[in-house]
Structures are given as structure tokens and as C-alpha cells.
Design goal:
Elements: E1 9-13, H1 36-52, E2 56-60, E3 77-79, E4 82-84, H2 96-106, E5 111-112, E6 124-127, E7 130-135, H3 142-151, E8 155-159, E9 172-174, E10 180-182, H4 189-198, E11 203-204, H5 207-211, E12 218-219, E13 223-227, H6 231-239, E14 243-247, H7 250-253, E15 264-265
Parallel strand pairs: 1-2, 4-5, 7-8, 10-11, 13-14
Antiparallel strand pairs: 1-15, 3-4, 6-7, 9-10, 12-13
Length: 273
């Protein structure tokens, strides 16, 4: 199989106000020191990596008092030029939702209000013509039905069971329109069976790489940008023909984030539609 890179359109948010001021996932420890300058430098390396690969990167203005706004993947889901807004589970992040919604409205996107808790591309990933939708910790199962109504695509529910991998994008990475990488033990037995049926040729990650957020990666179909610490997964990906680019986002990992968390894909309407 020939692997081809597709130019992507991304939305990112500078970590201007990044901090770990509360704990809403197992990675967050407000007592641990955070280096804001290092976080900014690591984020800038990620942004520059995307630009060097030929992708387009837009930025949303960060808002004071919203330290997790840097994790742009949670700001919306964008498919075929349509936007499903988000509704956060935790009150600490609630004000991110209107900030991202306003950006999309100003940019001219049709925006659908969220009826249920959903945390955007953290739990909603497009693979070919289907949407994989995570639940168990953040996004409500009821939100999956709204996904299907808004985007008109089949939705496959996946149950997450390990609180360390609280969003789908921490346990599964979309590599191209046919292939994913994932950590089996992050999912319920039934969801593991579904993944085996859908993706018999998937790349299976091990726990060591998942714990450094190796699966929180961004792929354009050929180039996979992932944490530099996920060396085992990078080797498996290269054996499959992917080009891996390691980046160090260790400072953002202190809040439970990695490359994908920082990156929201803006998918425009296909020309045939």
C-alpha cells in the first residue's frame, strides 16, 4: 500500500496562559512546577513542524484564565465544513466552549450547538467515512447520536476504561483513511472486538508508549508527528512505511496533553458535495 501525505488545515492556540491550576485528569498535579516558557517553546516547535510539512495553521487568541485552552482539539469537531460545538464536563473548562464557537462563527462556519457533553476531537475521530466516538470519562454517550445527525456519517461508539486515557485521542491515533494505531487495554472488551473487526491491520501500541502519549499523534497519511519519547511506537510506524517526526511536549503532558490535543483539524467540504 502506498502512503500519501495530504495537506491539512489546523487550528491551534498558543499556551500563553498555560498552567496546571486544578486536577481534572490523572496527569494533573497542581503542586508540581510548570515552566511556561518551555511550554511555549515546545508548542512553537510543534507549530513549526506542521508548517514545515506544508500544512496550514491558524491560531485562536488565548483567553486569560483558561489554562487548558491550548488543547485546541477539544474546541470543536469539524467535518465537511460543518462544526459541532462542544460542551465540557468540567466547569474549569466551560468558558473555552464559547471562545471556540465565536472563532468559528467569525470565520463563517455553520455551527451546531452541543446538546450533550462532548469534548470535540478529544473523543471524536474521523476515519475514512466513519466517526469513532469515545465515551466513558468525558463525552456523553448521548452525544454520539447528535454526531450522526449533524454530520450524516456512521458513528462507532468506543468505551474507554482506563482513566489515564480519558479521551479517545490518548488511546487511538488515526494514521490514514484505513488504518489506526491504538492501545487495546484502554478499551472495554466489546470495543476491543469492534476495533479488531474494523481495523485488522492496526498498529498496536504498548503501555510504555501510551503513557508518554505516543498515541496522541497527528498524521497526514504519511508523516506522523508524535511525542519523541514514544520510541517503540515510532519504530512500529516506520516499519509500516510511515515517516515519524518526534517532538517533545513534556511540559504540556503535565496537564495530560500531547501533539493531537494541541491540534484541531479543520475539514472543509469536499468538492463533490
Amino acid at each position: 500500500m502506498t502512503l500519501d501525505a495530504t495537506r491539512r488545515h489546523y487550528l491551534m492556540c498558543r499556551p500563553t496562559y498555560f498552567a496546571v491550576e486544578y486536577a481534572i485528569n490523572p496527569w494533573m498535579d497542581p503542586s508540581a512546577p510548570v515552566d511556561p516558557a518551555l511550554a511555549m517553546a515546545q508548542w512553537e516547535t510543534l507549530r513549526r513542524t506542521f508548517l514545515d510539512l506544508g500544512h496550514t495553521v491558524e491560531e485562536i487568541e488565548p483567553v486569560p484564565g483558561l489554562p487548558d485552552m491550548v488543547f485546541a482539539a477539544n474546541g470543536a469537531t469539524v467535518v465537511d465544513g460543518e462544526v459541532l460545538a462542544v460542551q465540557f464536563r468540567d466547569p474549569q473548562r466551560a468558558d473555552e466552549a464559547p471562545a471556540y464557537r465565536s472563532w468559528f462563527e467569525r470565520a463563517g462556519y455553520p455551527v451546531h450547538e452541543a446538546k450533550y457533553v462532548n469534548e470535540g476531537e478529544g473523543d471524536i475521530l474521523l476515519v475514512g467515512g466513519m466517526l469513532l466516538a469515545g465515551t466513558g470519562f468525558r463525552t456523553a454517550h448521548a452525544a454520539h447520536a447528535q454526531l450522526q445527525e449533524v454530520f450524516g456519517r456512521p458513528v462507532v461508539t468506543l468505551q474507554l476504561v482506563d482513566p489515564r486515557f480519558y479521551h479517545l485521542d490518548t488511546a487511538l491515533c488515526v494514521l490514514d483513511d484505513r488504518t489506526v494505531a491504538y492501545l487495546p487495554e484502554a478499551f472495554s472488551p466489546g470495543s476491543q472486538a469492534v476495533l479488531r473487526r474494523l481495523f485488522p491491520d492496526a498498529v498496536l501500541a504498548d503501555i510504555a508508549d501510551a503513557e508518554v502519549f505516543g498515541l496522541n499523534a497527528v498524521s497526514d497519511g504519511l508523516n506522523v508527528v508524535l511525542p519523541a519519547q514514544a520510541t517503540g511506537l515510532a519504530t512500529k510506524l516506520r516499519e509500516r512505511g510511515y515517516n515519524t517526526i518526534g517532538v517533545d511536549l513534556s511540559e504540556l503532558l503535565k496537564a495530560g496533553g500531547g501533539p493531537k490535543c494541541c491540534t484541531l483539524v479543520l475539514r472543509e467540504r469536499e468538492a463533490s458535495k
